[in-house]
């Protein structure tokens, strides 16, 4: 290994101040909450501080009203000195996010507080962007590109949203909202894959998902379609009968109209599955 020599005037001889912009603040909500700033994860571990941070991150760059924060943190049983306690939490969170004490991203702005964070740096925003892109591509008939957009969106998830947060009423509702969007993205991803001719490749995924979600008629319908398109009509009929029996025995309902129509198509040899 050759020794490195430094010539007079070489920039390595003396450190030069960097003009590089500081790393942007990035946050993850699609899984355990993370907030990265200055190359470190700044998310606190104290439950109430983490909950407060989550409330600010679901509306990045916007002021969250004090009353909304109080409702989330204490619901209907706030402490007697709730405003003082909240300001104490904000103080500790600000110090945690900005240990250098030079301003920081947690800003007080009546009637509440905000995180001075670019919404595009929060993974929820990227998920929503890719979800919209996938829908647009699917509407345009570009099924392969749509499937890729939905796959990329789903890959942003590392687990249940806000998995490390003790959620109050607002955050609990927000997690339900996110999970419904994830379910929709999953269904549209599968639809795009089937439309692009990858029905055989999707059979393993669909069987696994259908087993884990025994009453999800959309998933079971996609499995039945994929089996029919793959030339496995008897397996498709068996999957339909299994679902119908489960629905009738445990919920007392019939399969939806779309599934019943799919069943009629399966019984008609000359009528292709769509």
Automatic annotation (TrEMBL):
Residues 17-117 form the OmpR/PhoB-type domain. Residues 17-117 bind DNA. Residues 1-23 are annotated as: Disordered. GO terms for biological process: phosphorelay signal transduction system; regulation of DNA-templated transcription. One of its GO terms (molecular function) is DNA binding. The keyword Plastid does not apply. SMART domains: BTAD (SM01043), Trans_reg_C (SM00862). It comes from the Bacteria. This is SARP family transcriptional regulator. The lineage of its organism: Bacteria, Bacillati, Actinomycetota, Actinomycetes, Pseudonocardiales.
């Amino acid at each position: 290994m050759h020794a490195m020599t430094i010539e007079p005037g070489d920039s390595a001889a003396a450190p030069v101040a960097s003009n590089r912009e500081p790393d942007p603040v990035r946050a993850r909500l699609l899984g355990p909450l993370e907030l990265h700033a200055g190359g470190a994860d700044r998310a606190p571990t104290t439950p109430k501080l983490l909950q407060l941070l989550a409330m600010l991150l679901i509306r990045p760059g916007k002021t969250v009203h004090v009353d909304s924060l109080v409702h989330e943190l204490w619901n209907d049983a706030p402490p007697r000195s709730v405003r003082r306690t909240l300001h104490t939490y904000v103080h500790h969170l600000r110090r945690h996010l900005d240990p250098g004490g030079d301003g920081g991203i947690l800003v007080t702005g009546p009637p509440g507080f905000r995180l001075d964070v670019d919404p595009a740096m929060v993974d929820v925003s990227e998920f929503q962007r890719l979800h919209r892109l996938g829908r647009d591509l699917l509407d345009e008939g570009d099924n392969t590109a749509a499937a890729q957009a939905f796959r990329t969106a789903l890959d942003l998830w590392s687990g249940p949203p806000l998995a490390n947060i003790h959620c109050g009423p607002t955050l609990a509702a927000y997690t339900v909202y996110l999970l419904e969007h994830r379910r929709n993205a999953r269904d549209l991803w599968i639809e795009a894959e089937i439309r692009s001719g990858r029905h055989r490749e999707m059979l393993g995924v669909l069987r696994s998902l259908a087993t884990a979600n025994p009453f999800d008629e959309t998933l079971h319908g996609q499995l039945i379609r994929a089996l029919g398109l793959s030339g496995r009509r008897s397996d498709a009929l068996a999957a339909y009968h299994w679902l119908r029996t489960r629905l009738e025995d445990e919920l007392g309902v019939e399969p939806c109209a779309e599934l019943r129509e799919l069943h009629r198509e399966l019984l008609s040899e000359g009528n292709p599955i769509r």
